[in-house]
């Protein structure tokens, strides 16, 4: 039997704490994890145990998560902690490298703009379903729509589930709450006649911008997907393209290219003959410009649309520019 005692230091300690942990192999692909969380009020030693089936690397990841949760919970007392204080500590302890950039923006925004002002002074262990219902009523009276209420409730549910996992509350007060009534608006799809005029004007006056708008109109792609499109994923001879990435906001500002959130977002789109010709002409213009400039504009596989960077230079937002998903 192999016994391994290891000390793990996570991204940052909570109040400077560190803990002892051990990982013991109990059989083939079976690991027993132990975390020493200190002593209780009576001075008795408190330890957490967990059995993991899988590889050694998987067991170490679970042990790191146990350590992170245990260190986060050190010094937390539900009887004296306000919901606002817990939410702020939850934001500080989030493992942001595991989250998408948009999520890293969403969590602090909802906590500090809506949840904190409305429920921040409520004791964590006394938060009731009625408190959440009254908060949603106040927000709706101030003009918040169903989508805003849904987002607000979703973030609050994640926070309270974390408190439940730490043993600070006995149940999540959102469980059993009536769902927010929300009817998704059906998008108004333009017909060929309504877009032919603007596209013809762009073809004559802005040929490069015409290629971008033509792809948006005839493929149904999101603006963020079109702006991240590369020639390596556009197969003109086969008359199709592949959607493999999108352009979004980075955490520190600016833009970044990320893969789609779901498997359904990675898809193949067939192209009609007119779209193939538009992209082929656009490609020839770019190659001609590159040859005249005497250098590569954007390196191998440069983007289909050279204007994509200007959207961010001028403060554009791929979530609000053009069509939305």
What descriptors fit this protein?
single chain; 325 residues; alpha+beta; four-stranded antiparallel sheet; three-stranded antiparallel sheet; 43% helix; extended; disordered N terminus; disordered C terminus
The helicity comes to 40-55%
Mean pLDDT: 76
Strand order of the largest sheet: 1-2-3-4
Radius of gyration: 26 Å
Number of DSSP strand runs? 9
Count, helices: 10
Oligomer: single chain
> Which term fits the overall shape?
extended
Sequence stretches where pLDDT stays below 50 over 5 or more residues: 1-17, 296-302, 305-325
Strand content: 15-25%
Distance between the termini: 55 Å
Q: Biggest sheet, open or closed, and with what strands and sense? A: 4 strands, antiparallel
Query: H/E series, N to C?
Result: EEEEHHHHHHHHEEEEEHH
Structural class: alpha+beta
Explain this structure:
- The protein is α+β, with helices and mostly antiparallel strands.
- 43% of the residues lie in helices and 15% in strands.
- It contains 10 helices and 9 strands.
- The chain has helices at 56-73, 83-93, 101-119, 129-141, 146-165, 192-205, 207-219, 223-227, 273-293, 308-313, and strands spanning 3-6, 20-27, 30-39, 45-53, 234-235, 240-243, 246-249, 255-258, 267-270.
- The strands form 3 sheets. The chain has a 4-stranded antiparallel β-sheet with strand order 1-2-3-4, covered by helices on one side. Strands 5-6-9 form a 3-stranded antiparallel β-sheet, with no helix packed on it.
Fold blueprint:
Elements lengths: L2 E4 L13 E8 L2 E10 L5 E9 L2 H18 L9 H11 L7 H19 L9 H13 L4 H20 L26 H14 L1 H13 L3 H5 L6 E2 L4 E4 L2 E4 L5 E4 L8 E4 L2 H21 L14 H6 L12
Antiparallel strand pairs: 1-2, 2-3, 3-4, 5-6, 6-9, 7-8
Helix pairs in contact: 2-3, 3-4, 3-5, 6-7, 7-9
């Amino acid at each position: 039997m192999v016994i391994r005692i290891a000390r793990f230091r996570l991204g940052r300690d909570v109040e400077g704490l560190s803990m002892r942990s051990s990982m013991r192999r109990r059989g083939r692909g079976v690991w027993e994890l132990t975390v020493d969380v200190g002593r209780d009020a009576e001075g008795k030693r408190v330890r957490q145990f967990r059995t993991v089936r899988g590889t050694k690397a998987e067991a170490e990841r679970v042990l790191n998560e146990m350590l992170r949760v245990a260190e986060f919970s050190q010094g937390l007392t539900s009887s004296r902690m306000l919901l606002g204080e817990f939410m702020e500590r939850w934001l500080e302890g989030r493992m942001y490298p595991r989250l998408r950039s948009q999520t890293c923006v969403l969590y602090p925004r909802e906590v500090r703009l809506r949840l904190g002002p409305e429920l921040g002074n409520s004791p964590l262990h006394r938060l009731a379903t009625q408190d959440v219902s009254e908060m949603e009523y106040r927000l709706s009276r101030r003009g918040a729509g169903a989508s805003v209420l849904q987002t607000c409730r979703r973030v609050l549910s994640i926070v309270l589930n974390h408190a439940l996992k730490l043993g600070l509350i006995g149940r999540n007060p959102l469980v059993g709450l009536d769902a927010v009534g929300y009817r998704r608006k059906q998008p108004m799809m333009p017909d060929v006649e309504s877009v032919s005029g603007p596209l013809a004007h762009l073809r004559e006056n802005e040929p490069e911008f015409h290629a971008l708008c033509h792809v948006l109109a005839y493929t149904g792609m999101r603006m963020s997907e079109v702006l991240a499109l590369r020639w390596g994923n556009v197969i003109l001879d086969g008359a199709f393209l592949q959607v493999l990435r999108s352009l979004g906001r980075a955490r520190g500002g600016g833009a970044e290219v990320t893969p789609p959130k779901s498997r359904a977002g990675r898809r193949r789109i067939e192209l009609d003959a007119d779209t193939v010709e538009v992209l082929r002409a656009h490609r020839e213009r770019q190659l001609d410009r590159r040859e005249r400039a005497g250098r590569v504009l954007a390196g191998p596989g440069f983007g289909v649309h050279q204007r994509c960077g200007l959207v961010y230079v001028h403060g554009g937002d791929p979530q609000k520019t053009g069509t939305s998903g």
